[in-house]
Amino acid sequence: MNILVLNAGSSSLKYQLIEMPSERVKCIGIVERIGMNDAIFTHEKGSQEYSEVLPILNHEIGLKKIAKTLMDDKIGVINSVDEIEAVGHRVVHGGNKFSKTVIVNREVKDNIRELFDLAPLHNPANLTGIEIAETIFTSAKQIAIFDTAFHQTMPKKAYQFAIPNMYLHQHHIRAYGFHGTSHKYVSEKATEFLNKKTSKIITIHLGNGCSMAAIKDGKTIDTSMGFGPMNGLIMGTRSGDIDPSVIFFLMKKFDKNVEEINKLLQKESGMLGLTGHSDLREISEKAANGDENCKNALQLAAYRIQKFIGSFVAALNGIDAIVFTAGIGENSDLMRKLTCDNLDFLGIDLDAKKNKIRSKEIREIQKENAKVKILVIPTNEEIEIAKQSYQVLK
């Protein structure tokens, strides 16, 4: 079965064509800078890579370009769009309406539209991707996979905020959590690796966006992100947890409005606000060369992760393994080291030599006799989306 995995952003379209159930990736690609005359289209088939700069003024033009390329004589992988049996769409926010992957119908689309207020930067683009795909891949089932769905197993004591009950019951204001596709994928890989009937795992997704999840026997019981994807850990440009009174102070002291505060916390804070840079590689290099702001930012980011590890160990009442994943989690031995420092009381004891080894496979990086496994597991959200789409259809 050919499944096209589609991740529609506000100005981008990422895609992979995956053969299921073998999980063979036939091609991958991305359309960037949608809405511009100099949009960038990149397509990879095995060792072949094709790139083009061209005007792509909207998502429909972008998706038609993808479909045409998939059928290209030289770099294509199918002869007809009818060979695609399903299109799996990443949808960021499912609210409390979606706790599992669903086949898209009118009701599903209406519900996604109703959730625009909860994810104004993501859900509208996600829905646009679905609606355009319906007109191009007419023989395919459209499948919606929600970032928040995996975390719907959280108990009420973990997701409810201490504000009047009406805001939860009438307006659904609560913690939802994000990066669920990634947390689900790596936690299942970790459970298989541990080969235990029961498990207590903390997954740490570190990229430009960062989040953690406490997972007991395959189900989330708590997560660091909440109502939106801004809180919790320190991220590339997002502040993570902040005292709400700081927001009111900034509004009053500097006469900032809601939009300005949102921009400050979403796009001007985090590692960027602390160092002037959002790329961890650049920050790490400058820290190694003595930049005090960069050294301080790394310590702040690691300390925030450590605090969540401690609280999640308490929530789980124990810990079998912690899992590092995503771009930074998989590739930055420095962040893994800073995170694991001084956690030996919890049984978390990093092996410095193992931590330096790079691999695309699952690997253990704890000391030989450490009580807690420290795992590095490459995430693959596209494969997870394809798996869930295939399971729904079967």
TrEMBL record:
Pfam families: Acetate_kinase. Keywords: ATP-binding, Cytoplasm, Kinase, Magnesium, Metal-binding, Nucleotide-binding, Transferase. Coiled coil: none annotated. Its cofactor is Mg(2+); Mn(2+). It catalyses: acetate + ATP = acetyl phosphate + ADP. Mg(2+). Can also accept Mn(2+). It is found in: Cytoplasm. Its main location: cytoplasm. Its EC number is 2.7.2.1. It comes from the Bacteria. GO terms for biological process: acetate metabolic process; acetyl-CoA biosynthetic process. Signal peptide: none annotated. Mg(2+) binds at N7, E381. GO terms for molecular function: acetate kinase activity; ATP binding; magnesium ion binding. GO terms for cellular component: cytoplasm. CDD domains: ASKHA_NBD_AcK_PK. The record marks H179, R238 as: Transition state stabilizer. The active site is at D147. ATP binds at K14, H205, L206, G207, N208, G209, D279, L280, R281, G327, I328, G329, E330, N331. Belongs to the acetokinase family. Homodimer. This is Acetate kinase. The gene is ackA.
